Amino acid sequence: MRSLALLARLLDYPTAELKDARREMTSLLSQDKQLPPACRSELIAFVDQLCTTDLLDSQENYVATFDRGRATSLLLFEHVHGESRDRGQAMVDLMNEYEQAGLQLDARELPDYLPLFLEFLSTREAEEIKQWLASITHILALVAERLRHRDSDYAVIFDTLVTLAGEEVDQQTLAVTVAAEERDDTPEAMDKVWEEEMVRFVDDQGASCGQSQAVQQRRDELGKVQTLYVQEPSELRGTGTDGI
User: Fold this and answer.
1) Neighbouring-strand partners of residue 113
2) pTM value?
């Protein structure tokens, strides 16, 4: 499903190349019949808005949306495991899935980074895509509601993924829960998180080290896996969209 690779690009840090690919992105979305009509329309509107906004403003908005606090983090396991030892094992398991699919990770990439996960899914069959998305619907729906609560246009991407998963979501309960949450993206909240993390690092060095070693070991093994191309290299040169 090529639109999943496009959604991965839209969830990445905005670039001039992405803005230049506006026509290709809207064309791909309008032709993808696997997307519900309502989702197609909303995604095309999002692409138009993103590509017509000043690049520096788009980048500043992206950082404010995803890089301040953890409530809207694009690291999936952070919403489930935080920084516990369980997250390390979960990432190892996911990296094993990537390895079996022939996907090679860059050393800087964490396997639970949502854009990377969506790129992986874009190579799978429809039923498998639905199963994977269903397994993380609770995360996607929660982040979507938090983004909506913050008036972020990025909510449409998460809403689309929830729709593709086909799982029931108690939207009313979710909205009440999010409305009662304390924002974690304010300067005061971020200072508090850093203070708490410093104490936890001192008290739990063994767990942190174990997690890092497990993930690094898996990264070393992945060095033997051949790179996965979402499109053939000849297609990428023809579009100028950096793999969309």
Assistant:
1) 75
2) 0.75
CA-CA distances (angstroms) from residue 66 to 12, 89, 113, 152, 243?
10, 24, 12, 11, 23
Closest C-alpha among 44, 116, 108, 114 to residue 75:
114
Nearest to 167 by CA among 205, 118, 208, 130: 130
Instruction: Give mean pLDDT, residues 115-133.
Output: 92
- pLDDT tens column, 135-152: 999 999 999 999 999 999
Measured distance CA(159)–CA(41) in Å, rounded = 13
Contacts of 227 (CB under 8 A, 6+ apart): 102, 103, 104
Query: CB-based contacts of 185: which residues, under 8 Å, 6+ apart?
Result: 64, 68, 69, 71, 72
Max CA pair span of the chain: 53
**pLDDT one-digit tens code per residue, 49-74:** 999 999 999 999 999 999 887 889 99
How does residue 83 score in pLDDT terms, banded at 50, 70 and 90?
low
Q: How far is CA 241 from CA 28, 57, 120, 138, 174, in A?
A: 12, 21, 18, 31, 36
Tokens of 68: 């301040």
**Residue the block writes with tokens 């995604």:** 43
| Cα distance between residue 61 and residue 185, in whole Å | 13
pLDDT at 86: 63
